[in-house]
Write a sequence for this structure.
């Protein structure tokens, strides 16, 4: 499978290898291995899904406080409908399991899904292996929104806990709107222009973030720590917002998996095959940005997930978006839950999650860069 | 390699944000602009302290420069006469200068120097970590009081310009007293410095007399938080950790990493703190205080049940200057209200 990535990386047109079956283009010879391929992929998906659920349960059992396995599962099962277990544990133990760890694990999974699916979508849309949710300024916009949210004098007591995520999400969405508008050339949005506009706007916003930081006085730590990303204070109310948005947004993107496959052949060819390329860009850009915003607004900026996961999935299961998207979602959730376990348990104090994902992501990123033999554009 | 540029930019961003983290932690601990409430000024005692050897010029003296391990090595400097034009690069140094009665000789300080009131109207030579060397040169200082944060870049630059930079880098309560004595020697106001130190020592000893004898069972489990998202406490090598012990508490961060380790909510719950002290600037502005008071998941910790979630003026605990004693007394009152009425 490594050859697949290599051929894709060194492909002069920059398009990823897509088999004809993935694009739905009729072929004379349907290979007999097709059904086998499908079956093996679906089995892998089933294994990953059960693995994810097991990992989530396992992640809830570990933390800085030692809680016996039986107690943890007792608390978890007790939460399920129709199951009643006599409480043999203290209230604070129940709080730790069901109010602190469980929402944290679920939110880590949700953010993993969001960043990976958004990353895969951006990469497919831009036909650019290095695209991720942050290339077009989404993260920088969210950071500026959060920074402004921190420095705005709090009008109502208690409001400060909700204003930052709202501002961060708005910052992300407004940024993409600006980038999209700037990149428009007539009726079309050329991908190169979009990326360039995104990078330029992103740099501009980072400069503004730095400026806000310099004038923020004692709010500085809030902004800086937000930018490093953390699941420390994850709570159910955040899961209740992020989970539906991310699941709905990812499902919406999945509806366009075949179009994403076709667009890999190049925009002109995709148009000839009946794909409304500009509409596709608008819809998928919006959806991917929405799920990114929902994720980062609560936990801050977590880098590299959006780049590593889709590429890792491509290496293993190929570049067909009908599989790439669900596999990315599953692997992303598993990756981020695992990274969060590491961040919670590796040292006497928690390590910012962004550091762990970057430590895993940077070498892969470099490997990717070493493999590139062609200039992309 | 257009994409390569983007890639390296991204790496830079990561690096920058890590740098920001370090800076922010240092900043968080030392510069935060002061609050409106003034600390109690140290009143000089009337009894003269033991006299040190008299200062004669030229005076050769070592400053408080530390090596990479944090051991004080000191850089030797020579003063031909008592400094008349002092520039302070840190709020703590500014407060030391005023405590020594040298306010009229202070010609420059930073935008964060806001105590005492008179410090606000002094010419500013930049922020805390961002020093504008040109402004310093223009002020023709004969003494520049730098701090730990300047050791890496600012101090070497000032030395290369042949400017009289003197590092003050206290990290413990005793260090603060020694620093005041040292600055007093350099500026030739030893008697005044001895007075200040004696007054501070008397107040420290008054606290110690009641707290040092406390058996472990009577020490209050105290959690000190400098931030809530993520919750950050004070590691065993920090000054605030020392203050908790001196004030008759026992810090729940014992055995945790040095510096300012992050503590998850579950660790906070299982640490079972009887008192939580946040550092802040007063009431509504203190997000960490608001958070700990209102977070439903922390409702069962003893500190919440007994209504013992407090804040202490961060300028008293973060600035290694004369007001650390105010910080010690404030914390002692919060941790042991029954002993300090």
């Amino acid at each position: 499978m490594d050859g697949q990535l290599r051929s894709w990386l060194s492909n002069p047109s920059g398009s990823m290898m897509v088999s004809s079956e993935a694009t739905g283009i009729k072929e004379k010879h349907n290979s007999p291995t097709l059904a086998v391929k499908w079956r093996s992929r679906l089995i892998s998906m089933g294994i990953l899904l059960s693995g994810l659920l097991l990992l989530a349960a396992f992640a809830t059992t570990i933390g800085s406080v030692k809680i016996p396995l039986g107690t943890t599962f007792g608390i978890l099962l007790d939460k399920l409908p129709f199951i009643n277990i006599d409480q043999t544990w203290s209230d604070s133990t129940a709080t730790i399991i069901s109010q602190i760890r469980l929402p944290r694990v679920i939110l880590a999974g949700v953010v993993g899904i969001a960043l990976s699916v958004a990353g895969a979508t951006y990469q497919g849309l831009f036909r650019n292996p290095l695209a991720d949710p942050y290339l077009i300024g989404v993260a920088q916009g969210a950071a500026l929104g959060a920074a402004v949210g921190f420095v705005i004098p709090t009008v109502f007591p208690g409001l400060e806990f909700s204003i930052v995520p709202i501002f961060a999400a708005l910052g992300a969405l407004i940024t993409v709107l600006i980038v999209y508008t700037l990149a428009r050339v007539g009726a079309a949005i050329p991908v190169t222009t979009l990326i360039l506009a995104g990078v330029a706007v992103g740099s501009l916003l980072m400069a503004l973030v730095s400026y806000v930081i310099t004038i923020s006085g004692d709010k500085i730590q809030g902004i800086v720590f937000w930018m490093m990303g953390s699941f420390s204070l994850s709570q159910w109310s955040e899961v209740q917002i992020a989970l539906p948005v991310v699941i709905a947004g990812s499902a919406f993107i999945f509806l366009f998996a075949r179009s994403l496959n076709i667009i890999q052949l190049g925009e002109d060819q995709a148009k000839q095959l009946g794909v409304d390329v500009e509409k596709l860009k608008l819809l998928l850009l919006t959806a991917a940005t929405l799920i990114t915003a929902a994720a980062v607004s609560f936990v801050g900026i977590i880098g590299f997930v959006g780049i590593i996961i889709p590429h890792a999935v491509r290496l293993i299961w190929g570049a067909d978006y009908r599989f790439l998207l669900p596999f990315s979602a599953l692997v992303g959730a598993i990756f981020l839950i695992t990274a969060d376990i590491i961040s919670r348990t590796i040292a006497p104090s928690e390590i910012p999650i962004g550091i762990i994902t970057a430590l895993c992501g940077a070498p892969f990123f470099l490997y990717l860069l070493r493999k590139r033999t062609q200039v992309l554009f | 390699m257009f994409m390569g540029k983007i890639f390296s930019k991204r790496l830079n961003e990561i690096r920058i944000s890590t740098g920001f983290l370090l800076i922010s932690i240092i900043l968080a601990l030392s510069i935060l602009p002061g609050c409106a409430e003034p600390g109690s000024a140290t009143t000089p005692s009337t009894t003269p302290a033991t006299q040190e050897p008299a200062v004669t010029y030229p005076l050769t003296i070592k400053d408080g420069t530390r090596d990479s391990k944090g051991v004080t090595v000191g850089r030797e400097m020579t003063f031909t006469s008592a400094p008349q034009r002092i520039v302070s690069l840190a709020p703590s140094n500014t407060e030391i200068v005023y405590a020594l009665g040298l306010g009229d000789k202070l010609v420059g300080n930073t935008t964060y120097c806001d105590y005492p009131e008179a410090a606000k109207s002094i010419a500013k030579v930049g922020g805390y970590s961002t020093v504008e060397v040109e402004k310093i040169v223009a002020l023709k200082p004969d003494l520049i009081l730098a701090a730990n944060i300047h050791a890496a870049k600012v101090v070497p630059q000032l030395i290369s310009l042949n400017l009289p930079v003197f590092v003050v880098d206290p990290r413990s309560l005793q260090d603060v007293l020694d620093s005041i004595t040292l600055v007093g020697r350099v500026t030739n106001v030893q008697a005044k410095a001895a007075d200040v130190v004696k007054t501070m020592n008397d107040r420290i000893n008054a606290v110690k007399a009641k707290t040092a004898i406390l058996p472990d069972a009577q020490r209050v489990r105290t959690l000190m938080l400098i931030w809530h998202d993520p919750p950050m406490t004070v590691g065993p090598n920090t000054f605030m950790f020392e203050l908790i012990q001196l004030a008759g508490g026992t810090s729940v961060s014992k055995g945790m990493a040095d510096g300012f380790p992050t503590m998850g909510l579950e660790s906070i719950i299982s640490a079972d703190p009887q008192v939580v002290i946040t550092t802040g600037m007063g009431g509504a502005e203190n997000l960490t205080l608001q958070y700990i008071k209102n977070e439903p998941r922390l409702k069962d910790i003893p500190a919440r049940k007994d209504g013992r979630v407090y804040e202490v003026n961060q300028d008293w605990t973060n600035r290694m200057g004369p007001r650390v004693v105010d910080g010690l007394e404030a914390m002692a009152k919060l941790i042991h209200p029954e002993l300090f009425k």
Summary: The first helix of chain B runs from residue 2 to 30.
